[in-house]
Specification:
The chain has helices spanning about 80-85, 85-100, 110-125, 130-145, 195-205, 220-240, 245-250, and strands at about 5-15, 20-25, 30-35, 55-60, 70-75, 150-155, 170, 175-180, 190. The chain is of the alpha+beta class. The model has no long low-confidence stretch (mean pLDDT about 90). The protein binds zinc ion. The site of zinc ion (ZN) has 8 residues, from loops. Zinc ion binds near residues 161, 178, 181 and 182.
Length: about 250
């Protein structure tokens, strides 16, 4: 059987059987993978602690007919500040949930992997929960963009006119925004201010390393967060029938 090595971030680590762990890792080159770590819960195991959720690790694996077996693990980063802060943890698990829901196993995406890693580094260093929320919101926006679910932000999807500085409407099932003139023709929508639309356009071009310098008003950030979640939950419930994301979002603010 073949051996291979992978670098990734542990999304979940669950007890399995008497002494084993089932670990879900979002890897750089192979996307999301599940691996079985045998005997790691025994007191003498050197590998146990390195398999905590959130750790950035390098793993050595042995292919089997079923799940790959973990033979060795090296922790690269363990993010202690995030792990000791429940508010930071809830933000990070929301980001993990997005990966879990939007990516199938072995669907690799290096851009999202690097964005996740940079966002974790940013959240680890930050002392400001509002900033942490910007990292998470930026991450969500870019996942939607990567998988092609991002709303068209320039013009009305029904009449193609450029959006005016007035309240417009976000319509997930049409994949974009509708202006006031067309708003009577749609069924499911959420009003969205031009300020939110402009900030979304701005965030799309922003690099994650610029977030520590960025300030967004709390009210505006909440509006962006609500708009993105309205959109995200529509796709998740429609495609995957999972209410878990919505439940986590409700606890967020
Ligand atoms: Zn229109």
């Amino acid at each position: 059987m073949k051996s291979f090595c992978a670098e990734g971030i542990i999304l979940r680590s669950r007890d399995f059987g008497e002494a084993d762990k089932l670990v879900t890792i979002f890897t750089k080159r192979k996307g999301k993978i599940k691996v079985l770590a045998k005997g790691v819960r025994k007191v003498s195991s050197r590998r146990g602690g390195s398999l905590d959720a959130l750790n950035q690790v390098k793993v050595f694996l042995q292919e089997t007919k079923n799940l790959p077996f973990l033979t060795e693990v090296e922790a690269i980063q363990t993010f202690p500040s995030i792990k000791s802060d429940l508010a930071k943890l809830s933000i990070v698990f929301l980001m993990f949930e997005l990966i879990d829901q939007f990516f199938s196993e072995e669907q690799e995406n290096i851009l999202i992997f690097n964005l996740l890693l940079d966002s974790l580094k940013g959240i680890e260093k930050s002392f400001d929960l509002e900033k942490d929320k910007i990292f998470a919101t930026n991450f969500q926006l870019k996942i939607l963009s990567q998988i092609g679910y991002l709303p068209e932000l320039g013009s009305c999807v029904l009449c193609n006119r450029t959006l005016k500085p007035e309240t417009n409407f976000l319509v997930p099932y049409l994949g974009g925004l509708v202006d006031q003139g067309c708003s009577n023709e749609v069924l499911l929508s959420k009003s969205i201010s031009l300020e939110v639309i402009k900030t979304l356009r701005f965030l799309l071009k922003l690099s994650v390393t610029e977030i520590p310098k960025l300030n967004l008003e709390r009210k505006l950030l909440k509006e962006i967060f609500d708009a993105l979640n309205f959109y995200t939950v529509f796709f998740l419930e429609k495609d995957l029938n999972s209410p878990r994301f919505a439940t986590r979002v409700e606890k967020f603010y």
